[in-house]
Design brief:
This protein is mainly α. It is built from 12 helices and no strands.
């Protein structure tokens, strides 16, 4: 008797009633998220612009000695400026009770008070706006379920830093309202500026990551240049330290102490750099020593930048080479701006340009670091041998 033809064994993973083979869909990891990523980048771009604005206004607030003109921290009611003559008199009376008025601005008129009030009010208002833009944007994307997997915690962390920054701002201002003070403590100013650059760095990094699909990032990471990544990471850390040192210089007006270059006065070292007791105070309060440290860190940053550029120029990826070269160019420009600021005893226009130059350099370093880890891979025909 003839045997029946045997059917091929069915895989235990084969769907019942189907003989079609299932195939992976290219880009499936990002399906349905393209519009969300575009919207998230617009939101982050707006936050980035606002943070740059507040860095500028904060710098002008410091350069015009306006930071202590508002002596109370009122996160909600403080958003409304004085609207009547009586309101202005109350604000002015509060300021006249501060040490800065007594020791530096005694006899100031209400008309002279108003400009410094507006600088500080504008600075605080920008801070409120940043918090509101973050909260509305995050809530909107979250409620619409348009936040990509893994990003909720990142955005919450960013919002937490923005909130902490507001508290640090008041902690800084409060130091300048103590007896005998006419300005804020320099180390608190450095903390405040450092946090602003940390927030700016996170926004920049998230913006760059959301500009590429996850599948593209996974593929690009296989071509990551480890040594260049390490060099750019070192440059990022040293650059951040230099920003902190610059804030210490600004906090005690050390940029006006020695308007000479390359020497500090008549010598390489500042005279009597360790006069204050205890000795650690000199690193925060001695104008000559603080400016000297800032100069030396700048030289180290340039040397490291040249070393990273020499490695980066050998990258097989054109976008990475361009990004690393842009960092070196901006390093040279920023050093030039620093020298000009020192030689002319830190006039406000030179000082604020130098501060904004630090913002641009910071972003360029982060972009080059990103491309060292996630390069734009070219076709073999376009890769330079």
């Amino acid at each position: 008797m003839a045997k029946k033809a045997e059917k091929p064994a069915r895989s235990i993973f084969e769907e019942v009633g189907s003989t079609r083979k299932l195939a992976a869909t290219p880009g499936g990891i990002d399906r349905g998220r393209a519009d969300a990523r575009r919207g998230l980048r617009i939101w982050l771009g707006l936050l980035f612009a606002l943070v740059v604005c507040i860095v500028f206004v904060g710098g002008m607030t410091r350069l015009t000695d306006s930071g202590l003109s508002i002596t109370e921290w009122a996160p909600v009611s403080g958003a409304v400026p004085p609207l009547s003559a009586e309101d202005w008199e109350v604000e002015f009376a509060n300021y006249k009770a501060s040490p800065q008025y007594e020791l530096m601005n005694k006899g100031m008129t209400l008309a002279e008070f108003k400009p410094i009030f507006w600088w500080e009010w504008g600075h605080r208002q920008l801070g409120r706006t940043i918090g509101l833009v973050w909260a509305l944007g995050f809530a909107g994307f979250l409620l619409a379920r348009r936040v990509p997997p893994g990003w909720t915690g990142r955005f919450l962390g960013l919002g937490a830093l923005i909130g902490v920054q507001g508290a640090i701002g008041w902690w800084m201002v409060h130091s300048g309202l103590q007896d005998g003070m006419i300005t804020v403590a320099s180390y608190r100013l450095a903390t405040h500026l450092g946090m602003a650059f940390a927030i700016l760095g996170l926004i920049t990094w998230y913006f760059l990551r959301l500009g590429r699909r996850e599948v593209d990032l996974l593929q690009a990471r296989r071509a990551a240049e480890r040594k260049l990544w390490g060099g750019m990471t070192g440059l990022m850390h040293l650059g951040f330290l230099q920003i902190i040192l610059g804030a210490l210089v600004a906090g005690i007006d050390a940029g006006r102490a020695f308007p000479t270059w390359p020497l500090m006065g008549d010598s390489f070292l500042p005279p009597d750099p360790f006069q204050l007791e205890p000795i650690w105070r000199n690193f925060f309060e001695d104008a000559g020593l603080v400016q000297f440290i800032h100069r030396m860190a700048g030289y180290l940053l340039l040397i490291l930048g040249i070393g990273v550029w020499l490695r980066g120029r050998r990258s097989p990826h054109a976008a990475t080479r361009f990004a690393v070269s842009a960092v070196l160019v901006m390093l040279l420009v920023q050093m030039g701006l620093g020298i000009v600021t020192v030689i002319y005893a830190a006039p406000w226009h030179a000082a604020i340009t130098h501060q904004l130059g630090a913002v641009l350099l910071w972003v360029l370093i982060l972009r080059a670091r990103f491309l060292a880890r996630y390069p734009h891979v070219q076709s073999l025909r376009k890769i330079r041998r």
